[in-house]
């Protein structure tokens, strides 16, 4: 329209902005001839002869989308244009055309056409009770959707009045409208609380670009072009948005699963002065989950960072009456790592900060008679103090050269891997994958498993994980709820690795294959 306007400036130059007589004429001609002619044309199009040749094309869309509104064969489009030209040419002949009547009318047609096919009901109910006549003058998305499902009712263009006059009204129109307005309450049973990682990660959310969300997150050069826009979003998130938002909804067996995102980025979790604010957001999310009857809330990525809240311990102490169970996923992460070690391995090298997962892995390996090797004397002594006597005999001080299986956690000096043997296998037990990787070594994903096929709506990738893979923390929450374990599993509490591993396998989660 704008193009037409600038192509023929001399035509539009003399056009007044508003002429009441022209606008009234357009409106009357629309309610009268346009709606009337369209109604009968439409009924004719539904006659077998024309329907099979023309109109069935438009009706191949049962579940309509806004774009459906313009999907018609050419001859039909010409016919519609001729009808719509009636009010426009009438104002031209009577010299009452104005910008408002011309462009306003075209906008009205496009808007109403898209509205009718948008397949989402949003007209508030009190609009129809305040203006009872409105029902006859304006259709609703649910009204027109009935035409696309039942084919022989609700023929009107935008005004149902002719359907009422000629008795082609669908009797279920009013009920369908009311049912569409009532949205089912989808209260979650399990919530996974995650956060944004890099700046670009906002585009990888299911709300971002679907094509990006469907692939593991990598850095894309072209997203740099978006940086000015990204920064604006970041500032908005930082200053205005102090609450979690829902990024994904899944169902599994009888459970409703949701992922909630703390609108903060990884680097903000390492800033000390952000701690209070972060704990406030996470604490509020926990209380919200508690009051809406969520059974289990799992703390993903850095939302359980030791320096921030000691694996969630802070919240259990702060809110002693929590009904929702908090899960940090440490036990399952350790179980996944232990079960990823190739069968027959006699020694593994354990690297990284001493934390829950570290000790859980060390203990489990010693019990399974796999020697746990450390690189430095002080670390070795510290580990021995934590292990029981039987396990102690199974740990050893070693050198880089002697182990081909490396279990690596947070705070590990990634340069050490340069000295590792060719073909070594690195199994991370950290939240984030190593930044550097050697081409001649093998690397596992961060602790994660493949989701069972019956988990619905898993179309986007969780961070850097492949499609349909879930992080240990997210799975731990789901398994915890399925098993109905009525305890928190966070802070210093770790579960028996066998128990949680067996439960996870029983519910259909599968091990991921190593990327080579
Ligand atoms: C959590 O929810 C339960 C039951 O709905 C309620 O009794 C309890 O006070 C809540 N806890 C907190 C800390 O709000």
From TrEMBL:
<feature type="domain" description="Fatty acid hydroxylase">
    <location>
        <begin position="29"/>
        <end position="168"/>
    </location>
</feature>
<dbReference type="Pfam" id="PF04116">
    <property type="entry name" value="FA_hydroxylase"/>
</dbReference>
<keyword id="KW-0472">Membrane</keyword>
<dbReference type="InterPro" id="IPR006694">
    <property type="entry name" value="Fatty_acid_hydroxylase"/>
</dbReference>
<dbReference type="Pfam" id="PF12076">
    <property type="entry name" value="CER1-like_C"/>
</dbReference>
<protein>
    <submittedName>
        <fullName>Uncharacterized protein</fullName>
    </submittedName>
</protein>
<dbReference type="InterPro" id="IPR050307">
    <property type="entry name" value="Sterol_Desaturase_Related"/>
</dbReference>
<dbReference type="InterPro" id="IPR021940">
    <property type="entry name" value="CER1-like_C"/>
</dbReference>
<dbReference type="GO" id="GO:0005506">
    <property type="term" value="F:iron ion binding"/>
</dbReference>
<dbReference type="GO" id="GO:0016491">
    <property type="term" value="F:oxidoreductase activity"/>
</dbReference>
<dbReference type="GO" id="GO:0008610">
    <property type="term" value="P:lipid biosynthetic process"/>
</dbReference>
<keyword id="KW-0812">Transmembrane</keyword>
<comment type="similarity">
    <text>Belongs to the sterol desaturase family.</text>
</comment>
<feature type="domain" description="Very-long-chain aldehyde decarbonylase CER1-like C-terminal">
    <location>
        <begin position="348"/>
        <end position="510"/>
    </location>
</feature>
<dbReference type="GO" id="GO:0016020">
    <property type="term" value="C:membrane"/>
</dbReference>
<keyword id="KW-1133">Transmembrane helix</keyword>
<feature type="transmembrane region" description="Helical">
    <location>
        <begin position="22"/>
        <end position="41"/>
    </location>
</feature>
